[in-house]
Amino acid sequence: MKILLIGPQGSGKSTQAELLAQFLGLPKISTGDIFREIAEENSADGQRIRETMNQGKLIDDSETAKMVEGRLQKDDVVDGFILDGYPRNLAQKELFDPGFDQAIYLKVPDGEVTKRMMARGRADDSPEAIKKRLDLYNEQTEPLLNDYRNQGILIEIDGMGSIEEIQQRVRSALQK
Ligand code: AMP
């Protein structure tokens, strides 16, 4: 089973992806984790990715698409995978489409996401910066969600509640 987990920063998406991967016995692949690893490398690629990430920007669409396409050719994903973080926009999906069976969208109101991000207290988490990232996220993902909705594979999950409650919702939605 090929599953996409989609949702804004602060939606709890990575935690839910991790729990679901354990439950289904499938690998969890996170583009953010992969890029963070590359960013630690002492190479030209490492430095470029590091700078892009530190500026809060996205990695180039075609570079990201190629990276994911390469990763999904490895042996460990033959039975499926949980993908966290790709595609982020319609352009990426058009460059490389992993062919998901289900796309799970964790829905958390903007106000709640903002509250959670503020609570992290990071320097780049001013209310303005958070709003900007969230607006950009919504603008880029909306067309993607519509696409999966039209394909009939979008599952919308209420992302408010405890980690366990939300995981339960995800699991029962997948069984339907
Ligand atoms: P995340 O952990 O999903 O918040 O991702 C951390 C960072 O990795 C993002 O801010 C981007 O710089 C990069 N990244 C992750 N996924 C993608 C993607 N699909 N397209 C472009 N950049 C990405």
UniProtKB/TrEMBL annotation:
Q: Which UniProt keywords apply?
A: ATP-binding, Cytoplasm, Kinase, Nucleotide biosynthesis, Nucleotide-binding, Transferase
- UniProt xrefs under CDD domains: ADK
Q: Where is this region: NMP?
A: 30-59
Q: What is its EC number?
A: 2.7.4.3
Organism expressing this protein natively: Candidatus Daviesbacteria bacterium RIFCSPHIGHO2_01_FULL_41_23
Q: Which GO terms describe its cellular component?
A: cytoplasm
Q: So where does AMP get bound?
A: 31, 36, 57-59, 85-88, 92, 122, 133
Q: Supply the name of the protein.
A: Adenylate kinase
For this chain, the family text in UniProt reads: Belongs to the adenylate kinase family.
Pathway assignment? Purine metabolism; AMP biosynthesis via salvage pathway; AMP from ADP: step 1/1
**GO BP term, example:** AMP salvage
A GO molecular-function annotation: ATP binding
Q: Where in the cell is it found?
A: Cytoplasm
Positions of ATP binding: 10-15, 120, 161
UniProt comment concerning the protein's domains: Consists of three domains, a large central CORE domain and two small peripheral domains, NMPbind and LID, which undergo movements during catalysis. The LID domain closes over the site of phosphoryl transfer upon ATP binding. Assembling and dissambling the active center during each catalytic cycle provides an effective means to prevent ATP hydrolysis.
InterPro entries attached here?
Answer: Adenylat/UMP-CMP_kin (IPR000850), Adenylat_kinase_CS (IPR033690), P-loop_NTPase (IPR027417)
Record text on subunit structure and interactions:
Monomer.
Reactions it catalyzes: AMP + ATP = 2 ADP
